[in-house]
């Protein structure tokens, strides 16, 4: 069966390439050959090779350590590639080192042809499987079906554990937290873990519609009840019958609508606009708000009776800045979700400097901002495998201001500007002073002096 992708066979021994390349071709594989390290690198960069058969001791220098470095570079450029290292007899130490670096397998010369074919077949089957998993994950994320809750930080795990415990009951749930902290996703999780999971989950954003439209969206209406009501409309309470209704931005609901929602919750009956008779519904309510309902109660803008009716169990989702340890996991999760935006369909990675820039950002828009940022950076990175700080929108917006607060004289302003440039360059270069000096056009010594002067050592 022909392989869907070419194999790269790298060995300086022409006879070896001829025999084993021929064997693999006979078995139906497309084989591309390279005889030294530079041409192997160029060939590898030019095409997508899922599998590389690699001799570690290659011209021009024949050194094993250069071979191992080449292997590490190859795997860091394309971590999904499977590399089978081919070594001379008695070279165990280096082959083990190669496996430690991430080589998939190794073969010792003289290579048994049957073993070679089995190892190659197994490695390619693995590649196919991994690519299928990645593509399934992508289509799931695209279809909006990715409900995985990512995070390991204690405040986030507390919220998830509370959600899981409360899911089995039919109690109302109030999810609070800043915008973009994952309130809707948590509400979906409660629904999916409840006995209602086979029923509908119906979300509505109470802040997105004017009062009259929201009322008819929630309770439905009968034909002719107002201009434009050309047919009966069931309404979302009825749509959610047997399932869960998710009232997002509950704090945005007007006081008169609050009364109607309260009545529906108390009686289990809803009255469509213009109807004479109420309709019975069986709905579990989950609400969410980014507003401080306690304060709204005191101000009289939210009804206390409704508050107690919807509160049931309150789950507070922490803002991203309070769950900093989740940032790398979440960034990776969102990068995986948008792998389909990359020309090669593979998720981009964060460079160390970009990861540091993420860690230094305040994330006022929480997870939604992070997801958007990862999408944008993926697109801007283009063919590049790694995302760099310049692909992030906020590294641009956080450029040095023309004048720092408190700086009055020109010399002070220049000094403040210089300091911020240095701080940013250090961040971009992951704290590496040699690279920072290069990036700023300074000698290393010159940079060290400035670091000392600005107290940045
Ligand atoms: N724990 C998580 N793991 C993975 N993705 C998450 C997580 N929490 C939220 N998300 C994703 O972050 C984005 C924002 O989440 P969501 O819409 O649930 O936030 P929200 O708090 O309801 O926002 P808003 O207050 O604006 O309505 C969504 O794309 C969601 O899938």
Outline the fold blueprint.
Blueprint: E1 7-10, H1 14-26, E2 31-34, H2 37-46, E3 51-55, H3 64-77, E4 82-87, H4 92-101, E5 105-108, H5 113-142, H6 154-167, E6 173-176, H7 183-192, E7 201-205, H8 211-219, H9 236-239, E8 244-248, H10 255-267, E9 269-270, E10 279-280, E11 284-289, H11 293-299, H12 304-311, E12 313-316, H13 327-337, E13 349-350, H14 352-360, H15 366-381, E14 386-387, H16 393-397, H17 410-428, H18 433-440, H19 444-453
Parallel strand pairs: 1-2, 1-3, 3-4, 4-5, 6-11, 6-12, 7-8, 8-11, 13-14
Antiparallel strand pairs: 9-10
What does the model show?
The structure is a single chain. The chain is α/β, with parallel strands linked by helices. It folds into 4 domains: 7-142, 3-Layer(aba) Sandwich (Rossmann fold); 154-316, P-loop containing nucleotide triphosphate hydrolases (Rossmann fold), CATH 3.40.50; 323-397, Orthogonal Bundle (Helicase, Ruva Protein, domain 3), CATH 1.10.8; 410-453, Arc Repressor Mutant, subunit A. 48% of the residues lie in helices and 12% in strands. It is built from 19 helices and 14 strands. The chain has helices spanning 14-26, 37-46, 64-77, 92-101, 113-142, 154-167, 183-192, 211-219, 236-239, 255-267, 293-299, 304-311, 327-337, 352-360, 366-381, 393-397, 410-428, 433-440, 444-453, and strands at 7-10, 31-34, 51-55, 82-87, 105-108, 173-176, 201-205, 244-248, 269-270, 279-280, 284-289, 313-316, 349-350, 386-387. The longest helix has 30 residues, at 113-142. Mean pLDDT is 87; it is low at 397-404. It comes from Pyxidicoccus parkwayensis. The modification 4-aspartylphosphate is found at residue 55. Keywords: ATP-binding, DNA-binding, Nucleotide-binding, Phosphoprotein, Transcription, Transcription regulation. Residues 6-124 form the Response regulatory domain.
